[in-house]
Amino acid sequence: MAPQVHRELSAAGVPRATQDDALTRFRTCARDRAGEKDPATVPASCATDGGTAIAATLAANAPRAQAVTFGRAYRVGMFGVAGLMVLVTVLMLSLPRFAIPREP
Questions:
Q1: FRET pair for 25, CA 20 to 30 Å: which of 36, 43, 76, 96?
Q2: C-alpha dihedral over 17, 20, 24, 27, to 10 degrees?
Q3: Where are the chain's structural domains?
Q4: C-alpha to C-alpha distance for 37 and 40, rounded to whole angstroms
């Protein structure tokens, strides 16, 4: 995602040093926004004090950042569940087929 944001900021005439700073703040904002319980809440790290070109570019890329974050989290969760299911299946198959009754 970073190369696309750099290209858009370059096209808007933003200097490279400012781009790096804006991208760092954007990453922090995306991480904080992903941790919010209410998606309508805007974290303090998402406040833009840069020019309108920076604010517009970052606002346009925010939904994509949320989608990427959600997709990665979903993928990790699904692989975790699949791994647990494989583990349970292996443990289940290692149990004896018939129970041997014990004498009291």
A1: 76
A2: 150
A3: 2-69
A4: 9
